[in-house]
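Researcher: Re-running this chain for the archive, since the previous output was lost when a drive failed. Same request as before.
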Amino acid sequence: MEFNDLNINREKTDFQYIPSDDDLDKLIAQKSFSSLNLLKAEYKRQLIILPSIAALFFLTTLISTTAEHTILVWISIFMLLLLALIYYRNYILVLSIMKPHNSGLKNRLEEKIGLFDQYRNQQLFVLKVLFLIFILGLESTLYFKQHSAFQFLQVIILPVRMIFYLMLLIIQPYMSKYFYNINFGHHISRLYDIVNQED
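Model: Regenerated structure tokens:
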């Protein structure tokens, strides 16, 4: 009798609990939903701020005839709305991951988490192009003397301005990555860590 009890106890001691897919999904959900919610909130905040600023710029074109004919104002509106569209796409991606589905949260994360990197690279490239367009718009505004608010830059000779623009173009990718990581990157890195820990 004692020998049988000992074998039973040893079997209980040696038993290792293997979580089911449902238990694993719940564990990942608990860890990842906070990061996903923070990421969703940040994208939502940008979706409010950027169109609001674009609307203010548009109002200036209605109030001021000078602003209406200033190409830099329209370029700024275009840039803000384009960035809002990029953030909206990322926002939809987060919602698609959080949405209940038969495949489970872990599978959805593994399938779609790579899209964050893809979208980030596209966003950084678009920012670089937009920054270059902004510089060209600024120079166009100065050349055609479209707005007095920028005329103070004309006291700076063109070669010096070109050097300044070149420095900004060199710094811009690093600054864009820095602010991206502050606002979004650390949340996405946390999601990668969660997926890798549960593999």
